[in-house]
Amino acid sequence: MRSPGVLTSRGQAFLMLGVLTALAGIVLGYRDVTRIGILLLALPLLAMVWMRRRPPSIRVLRTVSPSRMLPDERGEVRALFTNVGSSRTPMYLAEEQFDYALGDRPRFLLPRMDRGEERQLRYTIRSRHRGSYPLGPVTLRLRDPFGLTYLVMQLPRTDEALVLPRIYDLGTRGPRGQGRGTEGELPQMVALHGEDDVSIRSYRDGDELRRVHWPATAHRGELMVRQEDRPTRRRAVLLLDSRSSAHPGSVHRPSYEWAVSALASVARHLIQDGFVVHLLTEATLEDGSAAHPLDLDRIMTVLARIQPATGSAGLDPLIAAAHSFTSGGVLVVAAVVAHDEQEVRNLAAIRQPGNTAMAFVLDRSAFDAGSPTGTTRDTGTLALEGVLSESGWQTALVGPADPVAGAWEVIHGSRRSEGVR
After folding, report:
1. How far is CA 117 from CA 56, 79, 170, 281, in A?
2. What is the pLDDT of residues 365-406, one digit of tens each?
3. Cβ-contact 312, 245 below 8 angstroms
4. d(CA 275, CA 171)
5. How far apart are CA 322 and CA 350, in angstroms?
6. How far is Cα 407 from Cα 405, in angstroms, rounded to an integer?
7. Can you give the pTM of this predicted structure?
């Protein structure tokens, strides 16, 4: 993309001076003065015409190292410029465009390049906050030899700098009530009609009929299907409250960042403990990945890019998706803002008898005031936390000053928190 040639302050001065000189020459009858005025007037106009010639073709390729950074980690960007046109390029003043959260935008002189020639630029970036930051486009500025006009062009290619959420060590202690096998009741093992150790479970809505195990169905008197997972594989569902209305603030909302870091830390902890993990967010529901277990790299990528959803339908879609897992026994870990009583009650109903459900309950009033939970106790928040606790959830009420690891220990203690220490 290119902009039309624009006159510099020098070019504007030449234009005005040329007009005045030409008029003065005409009025006074001095032809030589008139010719000088016309020359002064023509110079910036000719420069603009000269700048409108076809610009050369330049390609830029970026490499970010490391490709996935942690907050406050320095990354190096290598930008390789290649002249892919048929003519030699002029010298450009170039500026890389990206969010100022990554640091100052680098400005540099891009020297002349012959056909096929390459030039490499290196610069560093660093961000305190997680997120997906676009790198580019590169803005090129070109001046004519007299400095009367300049041309602005952009190299449209963009790349991504990915900053992962902060991850905290949650220790080596596993979730309470989770032994070997799956959550809730264990899948039954049968060996009928010569089949060796076929893992089966009860039929659920949405199961394919081709997976029905007819001998076991006849034996039990109810529809049974072949179990997809090994009996020793444990399953966990992580649920993130992404309602924009529930998280105070606009940019880098403290409550939302706390929730994202908490679930990222729990995901790593559970995967290292041998769990199969599903991530329920509005983004994963939309792209269909919520139905499938995700590895740690994929979870970190999703949580690095995720943002609060404006115009959200609330927690109900996430709750409905979670019900398809909890009916078969699963560990549920939610990071939720105590914002709407009815939605919290719907969330509480996810837990099935015999299952383990945990929740980081974010005190919205504490995050809004910027104070720790221990000093700001909202009665409405306490009541909504009580709804989850009474339904058998293990909860921790948290504020902006509460550490994730401390909240995890409170949840393990299965007690009401008076502010995480």
Report:
1. 13, 14, 52, 46
2. 888 876 554 444 567 778 888 899 999 999 999 999 999 999
3. yes
4. 16
5. 7
6. 5
7. 0.76
